[in-house]
Prior knowledge:
Elements: H1 19-22, H2 28-47, H3 54-74
Amino acid sequence: MSGGVRMxxxxxxxxxxxxxxxxxxxxxxxxxxxxxxxxEKRQKEIIYRGIKNPEALERKKKKQEETEKQTMNTVxxxxxxxxxxxxxxxxxx
Length: 93
């Protein structure tokens, strides 16, 4: 081979020779954070798939939750829940 490029079996590109020496592995905490960020990004992509404006959807959800909380707070505590009706009365005569 001309040019002084040393190649080993399976290495057909000079830029790949010694590539494993150049790899810098981040510390475990940084790697964990990167993996967590990537997982969160994938989850958001799955959730918002097909939605044109995800920010507007989030605002709408928050507004709806606030409205539900206000409704729950304005309902009087006495008689405001489910009503229970007596269907049968048993006597022990």
